Amino acid sequence: MSKAQSPDNFSMFGQADEYFEKNVLPRDVKGYQRIITRTTPYNHSHDTHYVFVRSGTGILTMNGLDYRLLPNTLTCLSPFNRYRYTPDPGQKLDIVECRFNSGAYVYLISNPYYKIKHFDVPTEPPIVRVSGFMKDIARQAIAGILEESAKNRPDSTDMLFCYITDLAGVIYDGIASGKTVKPIDYSK
Amino acid sequence: MCPVMENDGLFILVRDGVGSFIINGEEFVVGKGHVAWIQASQVLTIIPEFSSALELWVCVYDYQLLNYFLFNKISITDETGIVNAIPVLPYDEEDVAPIIALFEQYERLSRLSSRGSAVVRSSYLRKIELLYNRAAKKHSENYNINTMPLGRRVSLYIATHSTQALTAADVAEALGDVTENDVKHALLVATGMNFNQYYMRLKLVFTLSYFLYYSLQFDYIAACAGFSMDVGFYRKFKAMTGLTPQAYRERMLCDGSNGRIYRGMILSETIISAMNYLYENFSEHIDVDTIAGDLYTTGSVLRSHFRDYLHTSCKQILALFRVRYAESLLTTTDLPIVDISIESGFSSDRTLGRVFAEINGMSPGEFRKMRSRKVGK
Description:
The complex is a heterodimer of chains A (188) and B (377). The radius of gyration of chain A is 18 Å and the shape is globular. A five-stranded antiparallel β-sheet of chain A has the order 1-7-2-5-8. In chain A, strands 4-3-6 form a three-stranded antiparallel β-sheet, with no helix packed on it. Chain A contains four helices and eight strands; from the N terminus they run H-E-E-E-E-E-E-E-H-E-H-H. In chain A, helix 3 runs antiparallel to helix 4. With 188 residues, chain A is of the alpha+beta class. Chain B has 377 residues and is α+β, with helices and mostly antiparallel strands. Chain B has 18 helices and seven strands. Classes of the chains: A alpha+beta (188), B alpha+beta (377). The interface between A and B is large, with 83 and 95 residues.
């Protein structure tokens, strides 16, 4: 907390805002739906994205690897990924992308319940196929992201950050319970 | 039930039964579907109706977590509105049904022991708070500080001014039409504590909310809460909790062993800022000492923060970011390796080759060849 504060001005709640002065707080979290009917060009962004497949099937090609996309597939794409979507013939891929800047991502993983054993960026990004209760949570989070992005209430960023925290927890849980999606092995 | 005052906030859902909650001297009749947010400034007494039982679900919402999620600056007016808001929401299908749904899912999540579920639960608490605040705002016209009994008004005034030097006379003057003795008496009746006990307790609860911020010193936290002498803070803290601040913090942390829920420190601003900088500028020339200078710290402090909290170094993270980005260019473009090395922030293709091999155990060319065979045509 580098800002000199007088106790008279101090907030009743401590507030992270008093503690973090730099541009590291989640200011801009946005979610949007995409319906993909044909192969997209390669995409790259400096933001982090959560991508959730609501319906349809296809392929996600990322950094030279193909991953099967089925409904309820959730992934986190970082600024180090270039990727494209290819729907299966006759299919529409209905996906929701939620994007936020890197500061928000780092703030997200600094949640006191998120354990960082050793910070790493694996060559294969985390892709999980969610099911059961975690699927319900992911779907509700996605619906919430779309609703809050559209309504733009005064506390929408706060609510959106909660939803991306849900998705982070779902991925965290999916990895721990072995629900990760492996790249397609064409040699078989 | 005996009156209770916790150091954390409590969300309470009345699952069944009828009764009342006495909150800082004010009575609220509760029944099935009522939701309450008992903040740390509130003394709660639960009274079931005669020959009835109250079935309650309680979620503990600690102030460390609340502060972590409270990253958007809110005005003192809004904040005072939250503290002074109605502590029990009347049942209203539209407002309360989504909160009840979150409670029910929270209860299911509590039965899972995975770390992911703990992360999700943390956000559920914040969502309950946000929905609660939205619903409480609708009642702010009919329920505000002017409509409350004096004991509750006094307690809430102290709660919103606990970091300031405050006396009962100051509170009496601020509220108007009451004497210092009225203030002291009303507070004692409402909370069971005298002015100094209540005021000191809130100051100490305030300090607790900062305990999980890595790199904040206790004497600084004490100064923020308005303690003029460190020693006074340490003495009062031990008197209230029976522990030193250090020991209390140790108890708040958990390494996640033996099936317990992991809880760690919130990363320091320095690490978050430095990481953010690395993410956004990895393809540029980056000097660790320059980042440290921009963050008003030194290279050695920055290095130790990375080692302690991310268990790696700034240099290794930067190398990792660049190599991963180089991988994406190798596999999705036809750019020559020398161009990719510059594009991903390396000074030459030789440096890229060396660092790439250290991380992936193969050359960039071999990697490109290997991955090109793995994509469907």
